[in-house]
Every structure is written in C-alpha cells, then in structure tokens.
Design a protein that fits this description.
With 333 residues, the chain is α/β, with parallel strands linked by helices. The protein has one domain: D-Maltodextrin-Binding Protein, domain 2, CATH 3.40.190. The chain is built from 13 helices and nine strands. Strands 1, 2, 3, 4, 5, 6, 7, 8 and 9 form a nine-stranded mixed sheet that branches. Belongs to the bacterial solute-binding protein 7 family. This is ABC transporter substrate-binding protein. It comes from Billgrantia montanilacus.
Length: 333
C-alpha cells in the first residue's frame, strides 16, 4: 500500500472514530435528560399546583436541563393512595401527600395529622423546622426508601355542613366525609360523628346527593372544590393544622447525583415556603368571601372540641410513642 493510501486509511479511521464518539456523546446527552412525573390530587387553581409548576421550571433550569418535570394535578394519575404506591413502583417521581397517608407506611409521620395536635400555626411552623420532624422524616425514608423534602402548610381544617355546628354534641351521628386515612377519623369519632371515607374527587357529588351530611377541609380547598355551593355552614373548628409533604420516590432519588439532590432539596423547600405563605394569605381573606357568597361562617367552641379529642392522642389510634408526643408538645413552649 502506498504512503498516500495509508494516510487516507488513517484519516478515514480517525473520522469514523470521531463520528462514533460524537454519536455516543449525543446519545449520552439524550439519555441524561430525564423526564419526571409530579402527581397530586389538588386543583390547578390552588397554590400547590402553581408552586409545583414553578418547581418544575426551577428543576430544569438549575440542573441545566438534565431533568424536566411534568405536573399532573387533580388526581389525574390516581387517588392519594395510588400516587403513594406509585412512588415505590417508580410510576411517579414526586408527590404531595398528607402526613396521614405517609403515616400508613411509617406511623410517627402521622402525628402531625392528628386533631388538635398543634396549638396554632406557630407551633406547626416550629415543628416543620425542628429536629423532631427531620428525625421522623429520616425514619420514613429508612422504612420506605422514599425521601421527604419539605413540609407545606395545607391550612386549618374546618367542618362544612347544612346544619350549624357550635359544640361537639352538634356532630352526634353526623355522617361526615373524611379522607381515607385513620388520623382524619380521630375528631369525628371523639364527638360521636360517623366518619365516611370518600375519594377527594367524589366529595362534591356525595355532598350534593346527600350521601354524607358534611365534610372537612381548609378554607382554600373548600373554595377550590366549590364545597360551599352544596353546604350552607362553614364551622371554624380548626381541628387539624394540616400539612402536605413533598416526597421524592426512592427509585428516582437513588439515580440523582449529590449535586442534583441538593438542587431538589432547595427547590422544593422554596416551593413549600411559597405554598405556606399563599395559604396563610388565602385563609385570612376567605371568611369575608364565603359570607359574600351567602354562606354562614360559624365560630365554634374550639376548646370543647379540643377537650373531647385530646384523650385520644395517645389512645389506640396513635401510631407514635409517648416520647415523640411529648417532644412535639414541648416544641415552642
């Protein structure tokens, strides 16, 4: 073979190698861009969805496009039980879920969802920022492999009904819809009501058709789901200072680099702070709005409800030990 032919062959091999390297690099780049699924059961009009969308944009921007995220609202990927299961199956990557639902997998997580567990918002906030919450979150992660990243304020839960509720006796035998998690049943059972689990997206129709007499949710949720259209009274029981946890599924978390894990933590913590601020603002404004719609917003004797419920805090429904309970009650004192 002539020197010229040898040179041409060498150039051809170099070109082939370059093209292969470029192809491998291109393929690797495509594979590196992962699309995540964020599932929740809330309406697109609610702050939770707005800040989930914001988080999706921030994740893509801060990871320089390594991750994109589609947000699936309003139970479009399943009920709350379904999306919790989806985390471990890897069919969803991120969810909002109530502490009571997470408590099914790791009991102590449910303590934040018990009625009258918190004295007020400041007590809740102190818990959200406490070592106790971090320890419980780590216990949940050890148990499930899924990773809680932030606690979002969901609001104070109140009872809506077509008869006024002023004291615990007014709820005797009342058929009240609750989410399908045990902690939501604590207050109704303590006052002699009949808690009835119904999926979130079926509640409006159940109220409209009289399947249940009442339901309970925070003011922003009552408005977003239009429960005020089919209930006359909004009774300010404030029985649960409720939370949503932002959780990343273990299968996805295990694929993230340390750098990206830190980005996820920062973004979802910022989103939680924004959710909390927006819900507090909405709670402050909505009493007047509901009254303008023709509803009666009813102040109740909260201390009477609290006295009825507190004995159940460490009863048979408790999924935490006495030490955990005592530590939570001591926070902020």
């Amino acid at each position: 073979m002539s020197h010229k032919s040898q040179r041409h062959l060498k150039l051809a091999r170099m070109l082939t190698a370059s093209l292969l390297a470029a192809g491998i690099g291109f393929t690797g780049a495509v594979q590196a861009q992962q699309s995540l699924r964020f599932a929740h059961v809330y309406e697109t009009s609610e702050p939770f969805h707005k800040w989930a969308e914001w988080a999706a944009e921030q994740i893509e921007e801060r990871t320089e496009g390594r991750y994109t995220m589609q947000v699936h609202p309003a139970s479009s990927l399943g009920k709350e039980e379904d999306i919790n299961e989806g985390l471990e199956l890897g069919t969803v990557d991120v969810i909002y879920t109530g502490t009571q639902f997470a408590g099914r997998s790791y009991g102590p997580m449910g303590i934040a969802g018990a009625a009258y567990m918190f004295r007020d918002f400041d007590h809740w906030q102190a818990y959200a920022e406490s070592d106790l919450f971090q320890e419980i979150a780590q216990g949940y992660q050890d148990q499930t492999g899924n990773v809680p990243l932030a606690l979002n304020y969901y609001g104070e839960r109140h009872v809506t009904s077509n008869e006024p509720v002023n004291e615990p006796a007014d709820m005797q035998d009342m058929k009240i819809r609750v989410p399908n998690a045990p902690m939501y049943m604590m207050m109704p059972r303590a006052v002699g009501a009949n808690p009835t689990p119904i999926a979130f997206d079926e509640v409006y129709l159940a109220l409209q058709q009289g399947v249940v007499d009442a339901q309970e949710n925070p003011l922003p949720t009552i408005r977003a789901k239009a429960f005020h259209e089919v209930q006359d009274y909004i009774n300010l029981t404030g029985h649960i200072t409720d939370s949503l946890i932002t959780i990343v599924g273990g299968p996805r978390w295990n694929q993230l680099s340390e750098e990206d894990r830190e980005i996820f933590r920062e973004v979802f913590q910022e989103a939680a702070e924004n959710n909390t601020r927006d819900i507090q603002q909405a709670e402050a404004e909505l009493v007047a709005w509901f009254e303008e719609q023709g509803n009666t917003v009813n102040e109740v004797d909260r201390e009477a409800f609290r006295e009825a419920v507190v004995p159940a805090h460490n009863g048979s429904a408790a999924t935490w030990d006495q030490e955990t309970y005592d530590r939570l009650q001591a926070i902020g004192q």
